[in-house]
Every structure is written in C-alpha cells, then in structure tokens.
C-alpha cells in the first residue's frame, strides 16, 4: 500500500485516474491535488475548488466543475504535470453535480454530461457548446454514469427520487425510471462485448443505495429489469456516506463500500461476495484503467493507493482475474507496510 497525504481532515469530493493510469487527481475543500501511482504528490492547487463528483479526465485534459463554471485544464500524463495555463472556461454552469465524459468512439459522442437539479446538460467537451437539449431528470440528480458504447446515460439522486436511464442512440426507446431505496449511485458494467468471443453483451447497470446493490439489464429492447439477488450494502443510517461501487476494467469484479467500515469485492453479474480485503475504514474511490491500482479514502481524508496484485492472484485462481499489469510500473514495486 502506498500512503499519501490526501486531504487531511477533509472529505475527498472527487477522484479520477488519467486514462493511461499514470496520474490520480483528487479534490477536496483544500483544493486539487495530483498524485503518481505510488502516492507521491505531483501538484497542489489550493485555489481550485471542485464540486463533489465534479471531475472527469480524457487522455489530454482534466475537466473540473467549480463554483464558477466548468473548466478544462491540459494534463501532461507523460510527466505527471498539470500546467497552470491555459485554463479554458467551457461553461458557466456553477451548480453542477457529477460530470462524466462519453467513452472514446462511443455512439452519440463526444459529450460531457453535467448533472444539475432537474436536468442533465450535454456539452461538447471541446467547446462547451450544447450537444443537444438538456435531458429532464429527477429532482436532486447528483450522480451520473455512461455505458461503454455511449448508448445509455444513467442518473442517480442524492434524495429519495430514484434512478433515471436515457437511451442516447436513435430508436432505442424512451427514458425509464428505476425503483431504488432513496439516494442511489450508478455505474455501468464496463464492457459492451465479450473480449474472447466478441459477442455483444447486453447493457448492465448497477445501482447502490442505503439497503442494497442491484444489477439491472436491458432485456432485448423493452425495458430495464432487475437481476436477482441483490447484495446488501448495510449503508442505512450511515450519515454523510453513500453506497459506492467501482468496477475492475474487464468487469470481472466490482469493489463496493459495505457498512461504512469495509470494502467487499463482488462477482458483478451474480452479486456474490468473492472476498473482503482487510482495508478497514476505507472508502473506494477509483481503480486505475488497467486494473493494477486502487485508490481509497480513510475517514480522516487520508489517501491510500493499493497494489491489487495479491487480490488479483486470489481471483486468478478462480478464473476471475483482469488484464495484464501496466508495463510502466517497476517490478517488483516496493510496498509500504499498511
């Protein structure tokens, strides 16, 4: 485990890996911080205040939802540096919740989706101009996810109003509201086709609320239906915390928060517990794009970056490992004793 200073005494409001997995960006009340994979701080911009969930990353830029609008900063991942200039103001939307980028080459893109109370704005990520009229959303919309093919957008809420899913490709149908238990986060299964057979995989959407994690599937062009069984989240009455889930890149595992104290790794389609790592008092933030590292947050705002090799070895014995390690990491990596 690599320890990092994180945002001492503060909650981590947003975290995202660069798409090459070399830089982790985190934001809190004390500003924006950049880290390398070993937890060394690369930059600290204390005056940059990012709204909760208001951060997304492309191969070249970091997108930030701030109190004054949505800005774009160049990200030079090869050196791990974040240039101070130029900073582009894309939009004057100042009340954004979570923001997400459409996948490279995805249908209906490119777009930057911006959660707002009552709507989701769909912006051009290069110019900030609207790509299409805003999508009418449920009250208190705060969390967003886009499917790996770019055909679907899902929005969860910070209130008790449910989850809404929109089709973005032509002729799929109308939006659908999914019933959940109060506030709910959302995440799509990360693959659109089987990596071996190349057969298409029906869209799968995971929701997490105060009581349970649930997987939903698009059933052949009619509607989203839930797949049993659910997995308990034990998040009820955990003030200030929400259910959180992070998929491994190939979708063979999903890391979820459980009872505000532990992480669990589930089989995503069967919703069964595979293992419970000894990461006590940790909150999952993000897994790097190639599945080697996972960033977690402690209650005091401290940041940890975990090498998942040991867990991957355990899962590999069951045929559930994810893709090869990223080549730029030194081997072996000197770990800090937790």
Word description of this protein:
There is one protein chain. Helix content is 2%, strand content 43%. By secondary structure, it is mainly beta. It has a four-stranded antiparallel sheet, with no helix packed on it. A hairpin with a 3-residue loop joins β7 and β8. It starts with a strand and ends in a 22-residue tail after the last helix.
Topology, pairings included?
Elements: E1 2-4, E2 14-17, E3 23-28, E4 31-36, E5 41-45, E6 50-57, E7 61-66, E8 70-74, E9 88-91, E10 99-101, E11 112-116, E12 119-123, E13 130-136, E14 141-146, E15 152-157, E16 163-167, E17 176-178, E18 185-188, E19 204-208, E20 212-218, E21 224-232, E22 245-247, E23 254-258, E24 262-267, E25 272-275, E26 282-287, E27 293-298, E28 303-307, H1 309-316
Antiparallel strand pairs: 1-28, 2-3, 3-4, 4-5, 6-7, 7-8, 8-9, 10-11, 11-12, 12-13, 14-15, 15-16, 16-17, 18-19, 19-20, 20-21, 22-23, 23-24, 24-25, 26-27, 27-28
Number of strands: 28
What is the H/E string? EEEEEEEEEEEEEEEEEEEEEEEEEEEEH
Rg is 19 Å
Q: Residue ranges: pLDDT <50 for 5 or more in a row? A: 236-240, 324-338
Mean pLDDT: 79
Strand line-up across the major sheet = 1-28-27-26
Biggest beta sheet summary = 4 strands, antiparallel
Indicate the proportion of strand residues.
35-45%
Given the structure, what is the number of helices?
Answer: 1
What's the N-to-C terminus distance? 6 Å
Structural class: mainly beta
Question: Which shape, going by the Cα principal axes?
Answer: globular
Fraction of residues in helices?
Answer: under 10%
């Amino acid at each position: 485990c690599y320890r990092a200073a994180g945002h001492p005494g503060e909650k981590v409001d947003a975290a995202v890996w660069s798409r090459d997995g070399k830089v982790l960006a985190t934001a809190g009340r004390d500003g924006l911080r950049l880290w390398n994979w070993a937890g060394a701080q690369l930059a600290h911009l204390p005056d940059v205040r990012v709204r909760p969930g208001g951060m997304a990353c492309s191969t070249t830029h970091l997108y930030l939802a701030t109190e004054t609008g949505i800005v774009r900063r160049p990200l030079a991942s090869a050196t791990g540096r974040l240039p101070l200039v130029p900073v582009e103001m894309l939009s004057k939307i100042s009340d954004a919740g979570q923001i997400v980028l459409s996948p490279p080459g995805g249908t209906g893109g490119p777009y930057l989706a911006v959660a707002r109370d009552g709507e989701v704005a769909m912006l051009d990520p290069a110019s900030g101009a609207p790509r299409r009229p805003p999508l009418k959303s449920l009250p208190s919309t705060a969390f967003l996810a886009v499917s790996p093919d770019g055909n679907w957008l899902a929005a969860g809420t910070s209130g008790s109003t449910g989850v809404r899913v929109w089709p973005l490709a032509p002729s799929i149908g109308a939006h659908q509201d999914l019933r959940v238990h109060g506030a709910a986060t959302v995440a799509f299964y990360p693959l659109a086709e089987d990596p071996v057979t190349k057969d298409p995989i029906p869209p799968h959407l995971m929701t997490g609320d105060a009581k349970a994690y649930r997987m939903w599937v698009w059933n052949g062009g009619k509607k989203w239906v839930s797949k049993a069984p659910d997995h308990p989240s034990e998040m009820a009455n955990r003030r200030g915390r929400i259910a959180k889930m992070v998929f491994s890149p190939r979708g063979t595992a999903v890391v979820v928060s459980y009872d505000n104290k532990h992480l669990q790794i589930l089989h995503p389609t069967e919703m069964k517990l595979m293992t419970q790592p000894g990461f006590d008092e940790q909150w999952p933030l993000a897994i790097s794009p190639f599945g080697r590292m996972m960033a977690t947050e402690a209650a005091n705002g401290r940041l940890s970056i975990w090498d998942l090799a040991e867990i991957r070895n355990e899962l590999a014995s069951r045929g559930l490992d994810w893709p090869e390690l990223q080549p730029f990491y030194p081997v072996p990596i000197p770990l800090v004793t937790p």
